Amino acid sequence: MMPLDYQVYVVDDEETIREGIALALSDCYTLTTFADAESAIEKVAEAPPDLILMDIGLPGMTGMEALGRIKEIHPEVLVIMITAYEDINSVITCMKRGAYDYIIKPIHMEELENTIKNALETIRLRKEVRALQERQLTETTPCFIGESNAIHDVMAFISMVAKSPDTPVLILGETGTGKELIASTIHYRSPNFQGPFVTVNCAAIHKELIESELFGYEKGAFSGASTSGKTGLIEAAEGGTLFLDEVGDMGLDTQAKLLRFLEEGEFYKVGSTQKRKVQTRIVSATNRDLDKMILEETFRKDLYFRLGVIKINVPSLNERRDDTLILANYFMHTFAEKFNKPILGMTDEAEKRLLIYSWSGNVRELRNMMERGVLTARGERLTVEDLGLEDVRRGEVMENGATGFAPLPPTGIDIQEVRVAMETFYFKEALRIAKGNESKAARLLNLNHHTFRYQRKKILPDA
Ligand SMILES: Nc1ncnc2c1ncn2[C@@H]1O[C@H](COP(=O)(O)OP(=O)(O)OP(=O)(O)O)[C@@H](O)[C@H]1O
């Protein structure tokens, strides 16, 4: 491994000490010296070093005060306090406030070197862990693609919340918006990244079985149980992350047990009286309307609050159309490589239609569309036909992909006229797509059948 270049700041008002330390250490480290805490802190804020050697008894801001400030700005910077022998009480306070170690004046260079070596070993290990974490992150986490402001905000929030090893996170969003991808990103960015990431799809496991799957069971706990018993998924996620997908589909009994585990970190295996403790982070997700389920008493309110200490709302693809082409190109290149097809891009028309297409399955639908398109394409550019977008017709292509509305011309518009034209267009379209079936057409416009009928008579009196 290459030796790391360490940045060390020395803060002491005594010039002889600054010079003595610089003389002894400048061959091994990059040293910068300061005569007072104020100028050192200014520099720390703009360029944090790896290590600071700081006198406790500085004039102006004391070393102890400076330590507090440094720990506030950059808590990861290690600080070794330098102190006069009689000042040992201050040393104890400094150690309590986060100093890494201390040395007593007069300074013996050998002792100083050893103390520094220990500190730098701690830093080296931390850097190694971080590098390992980054590598693991790029190797194991699929890329989360998105350039829209909405996704940038989500990603910034994820980076922040991932730092905690155990705060529960609830991810809400329509199907296919990337909730599972976000859950795995949280795991690989968290301090638990080396632990397991265990996914449980609560909708896929029968309600009767989910409890034993989650908590495990003792041998002979119920008829049909394995004779050796079973370790539950919570235990399998020890030291890592347990991802409860479709948590809205969990039955009320299991919800109560999950709540107890979240509150106390303890649970019982099915058929066991022995309490078990497990440390894992719970990330959950659902595309169901939990507020409505709480009102209907099919989801516990207290569990909702406990699971959603941190809540992340993932916007649908229709709400962040800026991401459509970035994602489409990403999937196109991924599948072109996978299927070994010489695809270079998409036709302009295909791109335009992607931008106005109404996504009900979100990114998953887009991904599937691109997979099918790349697999069946004959030319170098994906066409409207390759992507199955023939029904999204030219007349529907609106100029402004972000909102779906044409820009307001400088001469203005007649809003009444536009409203009538829009309603006429969508009523006709709904009836065309629904092949004249009024109930289906009403659903496409999110109207009940009676309203649809009533309005149809007004809007399309001849149809
Ligand atoms: N921003 C993104 N970048 C790259 N791939 C994405 C992104 N969002 C979603 N995907 C991909 O789309 C597919 C669906 O995503 P995912 O399974 O995470 O959605 P979900 O919200 O958990 O869906 P559901 O609610 O149906 O379980 C996956 O293949 C995922 O890798």
From TrEMBL:
SMART domains: AAA, REC. The modification 4-aspartylphosphate is found at D55. Residues 144-375 form the Sigma-54 factor interaction domain. Pfam families: AAA_lid_14, Response_reg, Sigma54_activat. Residues 7-120 form the Response regulatory domain. Keywords: ATP-binding, Nucleotide-binding, Phosphoprotein. It comes from the Bacteria. InterPro entries: AAA+_ATPase (IPR003593), AAA_lid_NorR (IPR058031), CheY-like_superfamily (IPR011006), Homeodomain-like_sf (IPR009057), P-loop_NTPase (IPR027417), Sig_transdc_resp-reg_receiver (IPR001789), Sigma_54_int (IPR002078), Sigma_54_int_dom_ATP-bd_1 (IPR025662). SUPFAM superfamilies: CheY-like, Homeodomain-like, P-loop containing nucleoside triphosphate hydrolases. Coiled coil: none annotated. This is Acetoacetate metabolism regulatory protein AtoC. It comes from Desulfoluna limicola.
